[in-house]
């Protein structure tokens, strides 16, 4: 049976499968004036044709064939990603209700019994081709819409990241001694989270999504420094006790600024905030507020601004506490030289259980070489 036909017919391709040449001739002759027709006289031949171009838009499949019956052919078609979506109509002499039910249960779209009635066969063929067109169109539309949504989300995430990093850099640029502090502390926090993600005390708070939020929020930990007077923030010497008390307020200033942003978004409706959390970018701001407010808290309760103790300190703040102190110890300031790595490690160990969560210190000790690599990669003066 040829694959070329009269001009003006549909460009749809129909594969007719039957082990009897007479049936191929009758069904093919009926369809060929309207469609491109391909034929196969065995199950194995049908699979080969279905997997070649032009791929059939519809398959008319006999059931009773030697070596490989129609049921087995359909099962093979459904296993192959290239052919699994091709609709299959059984055309068979098996006319029992149970035969029809079984054929349809395997995934056939229709079941037509022989001898065929030309008008009925043509009508059903056209119906299933139209249904396939509709499914294909919906699939293409859904694919386009999913792609568009994904693109818009990537754009929104990029705009959010750029905006929030701009805010973080604003605070950093006012404090001209911090250099690449934001990059280093963010990388330290990411390293700690990777080390702790399966730890029994931390896994609940360090899912993949939560780790991403924490990493993106980390650069905002010192955003409150924009509210510190220049004569204190930029003082080229150690601060007096009175000046240090003012400097300490940057934690509260940053947290209050982020809280005000959240309040503006939800219009002061705390119930709405509770409803939205877990589903919106507001989660990012909540995490950022925890970090900004709590990264100077200490495990023994002697930190600021709230004097939180132990597990009352949010996990993101505990991670940032160690990352921030390590960076302060290993970087040069106007009032101090950079400590050697060994000395910085010793001081962190000394703070285990007093300044820092003991398990966070243990995680740091397990990956201190990675901290050293990060410090070198983002050393001040590099980009």
Automatic annotation (TrEMBL):
SMART domains, per the entry: HDc (SM00471), REC (SM00448)
Claim: Phosphoprotein is one of the keywords in the record: yes
The entry's keywords: Phosphoprotein
Organism whose genome encodes this protein: Azospira oryzae
Response regulatory domain ranges (all copies): 13-129
SUPFAM superfamilies per the UniProt record, alphabetical: CheY-like (SSF52172), HD-domain/PDEase-like (SSF109604)
Official protein name in the record: Two-component system response regulator
InterPro entries per the UniProt record, alphabetical: CheY-like_superfamily (IPR011006), Cyclic_di-GMP/3'3'-cGAMP_PDE (IPR052020), HD/PDEase_dom (IPR003607), HD_GYP_dom (IPR037522), Sig_transdc_resp-reg_receiver (IPR001789)
Domain HD-GYP: 156-380
Positions of modified residues (4-aspartylphosphate): 62
Annotated Pfam families: HD_5, Response_reg
